[in-house]
């Protein structure tokens, strides 16, 4: 099995605002694959051209890039052109998942529950926002992750500053209804009808602030896995996460973030197509709950690496005259 995986590049680092986390994820995956006997090599896309993947003879890649230029479909598209199999979702699903506005529109179209929202293009769009969404509300940069560019607005006078802060990350800002309740996340492995939801994790952060620091560096955040939910609610949450994952065409692996309100109604927040793989990360935690070690998880994800777009056979007419 390991020999069939060939020479593997672990893509990490990159140029996004999440570079620091990506470096940690990549180092963890690299060490895990080496422990399984895989011929794995670290490859920082910020310092090496992708053409080196071809010249150095890599057979497949494990993507541990987070955020822009790694999780947004651009890297996946480049790897399709190079015809190098890669882990995770294809370029289209990654692009959709990275754009929280498009993701929410697709979920709404499919009848999946997600908090009410409004897209803000300029300050004039702040008018009437409090009346529409209520307080507190969430403002977020729709193309960032790891809670970067996300602000909770507690009072109307704070709205303009929160908008200005979020606007530093993106041209558009997503204003979202605040769901008071329990923060949950569900890891998904596989694709299509074979996609499997792992046990639900509940995140209990100090003061309810699951921010960048509490995600990756603090030991104060509690993770309850499996989450203390009734079997009925847990199944409902897992099924919804799987539906959300499939709704936007995800494959390979991913993680769906959900809020559970006081009536035990789950609300979809976002999908991560290249989740963190650090010591504080949640997909390895969920896998461990079903007896899958970190190293085994990495090898399983790598084994599913593929090109998602088949090249047009030369023998098939394209209808274009030369």
Task: Describe the overall structure.
Its cofactor is Mn(2+); Mg(2+). Its EC number is 6.3.2.4. With 322 residues, this protein is an alpha+beta fold. Helix content is 33%, strand content 21%. It has helices at 2-5, 19-35, 51-55, 74-82, 91-98, 100-109, 129-133, 159-167, 212-216, 231-247, 282-289, 294-303, and strands at 7-12, 39-44, 60-63, 117-120, 137-140, 150-153, 173-177, 181-189, 196-197, 201-204, 222-224, 253-261, 266-272. Strands 8, 9, 10, 11, 12 and 13 form a six-stranded antiparallel sheet that branches. Helix 2 (19-35) links the parallel strand 1 (7-12) and strand 2. Residues 315-322 have low confidence and may be disordered.
Topology of helices and strands:
Blueprint: H1 2-5, E1 7-12, H2 19-35, E2 39-44, H3 51-55, E3 60-63, H4 74-82, H5 91-98, H6 100-109, E4 117-120, H7 129-133, E5 137-140, E6 150-153, H8 159-167, E7 173-177, E8 181-189, E9 196-197, E10 201-204, H9 212-216, E11 222-224, H10 231-247, E12 253-261, E13 266-272, H11 282-289, H12 294-303
Parallel strand pairs: 1-2, 1-3
Antiparallel strand pairs: 4-7, 5-6, 5-7, 8-9, 8-10, 8-12, 10-11, 12-13
Helix pairs in contact: 2-12
Binding site for Mg(2+) 2: 270, 272
Catalytic activity: 2 D-alanine + ATP = D-alanyl-D-alanine + ADP + phosphate + H(+)
Protein name: D-alanine--D-alanine ligase
Gist of the model:
The chain has 322 residues and is of the alpha+beta class. The chain contains twelve helices and 13 strands. Strands 8, 9, 10, 11, 12 and 13 form a six-stranded antiparallel β-sheet that branches.
């Amino acid at each position: 099995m390991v020999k069939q995986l060939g020479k593997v590049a672990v893509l990490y680092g990159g140029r996004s605002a999440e570079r620091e986390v990506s470096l940690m994820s990549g180092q963890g995956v690299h060490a895990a694959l080496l422990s399984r006997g895989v011929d794995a090599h670290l490859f920082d896309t910020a310092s090496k051209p992708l053409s080196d993947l071809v010249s150095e003879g890599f057979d497949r890649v494990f993507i541990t890039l987070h955020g822009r230029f790694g999780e947004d479909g651009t890297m996946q598209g480049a790897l399709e052109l190079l015809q190098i199999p890669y882990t995770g979702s294809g370029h289209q699903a990654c692009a959709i998942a990275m754009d929280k506005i498009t993701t929410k529109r697709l979920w709404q179209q499919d009848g999946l529950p997600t908090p009410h929202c409004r897209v803000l293009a300029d300050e004039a769009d702040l008018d009437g926002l409090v009346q529409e969404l209520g307080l507190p509300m969430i403002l977020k940069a729709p193309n960032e992750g790891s809670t970067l560019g996300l602000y909770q607005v507690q009072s109307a006078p704070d709205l303009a500053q929160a908008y200005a802060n979020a606007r530093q990350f993106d041209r558009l800002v997503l204003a979202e209804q605040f769901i008071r309740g329990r923060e949950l996340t569900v890891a998904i492995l596989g694709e299509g009808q074979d996609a499997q939801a792992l046990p639900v994790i509940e995140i209990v952060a100090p003061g309810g602030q699951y921010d960048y620091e509490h995600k990756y560096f603090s030991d104060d955040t509690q993770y309850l896995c499996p989450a203390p939910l009734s079997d009925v609610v847990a199944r409902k949450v897992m099924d919804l996460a799987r539906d959300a994952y499939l709704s936007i065409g995800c494959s390979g692996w991913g993680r769906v973030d959900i809020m559970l309100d006081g009536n035990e109604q789950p609300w979809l927040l976002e999908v991560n197509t290249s989740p963190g793989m650090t010591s504080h990360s949640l997909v390895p935690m969920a896998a461990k709950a079903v007896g899958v070690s970190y190293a085994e998880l990495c090898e399983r994800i790598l084994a599913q690496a593929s090109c998602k777009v088949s090249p047009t056979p030369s023998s098939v007419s394209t209808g274009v005259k030369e």
